[in-house]
Write the structure tokens for this entry.
Amino acid sequence: VLENQDLQDSIKPQKVEFHSLNFNTTLHWLPGWAREARDALYFVQYKVYGQSTWQNKDSCWGIPSHVCDLTHETSDIQEPYYGRVRATLARVYSNWSLSSRFTPWRETMIGPPMVTVVHSNKSITVKLQAPHSPYKRKRGSKITMTNYYDLLYQVFVINNLLDEQHRVLVYEGKDKVIKIEDLRPAVSYCIVARMYVPMLDRSSAYSSRQCTVL
């Protein structure tokens, strides 16, 4: 019995946590500390905070992987959720390991916008597109993140003559097409943008840089 108890403890999943980007939400965990824990299989359950019963996630039932997609199960984005995972090895089951409480609307990371740059001789036109959520309208198109938050685009110019890291904020607002004027010809400019959520005072990562020489 003691050996089983030891095995139970040593295969128990560690660090169970939600990761979420634009409401694409996965539950992640680390294997237990025993060396043989790498051969364990895992079982995932989830529930809304306040519910008494846990739901099995069927496609993450007896899996070797350390990640489980719960995007569909956490689609009520204002609700707080919990996830939990247990492991089995050699017919021994660990106890459940519980995640922290996770509320998608509050905690999902918002991704950067898509940026397209068109240049003329003295100006750059920047086209911006907010990231999409995984959720679809009835007609099948994906709903953008601007449906869920009051989002602002922040557009920065990097003048490559000066300094790679020196980003100058040239625009903040909701326009999807902006024009940056009075730029110097024959100079290489790079544009990066990010999404900003005023209500949560949070920013996305920067988009990949789009560079152009006027």
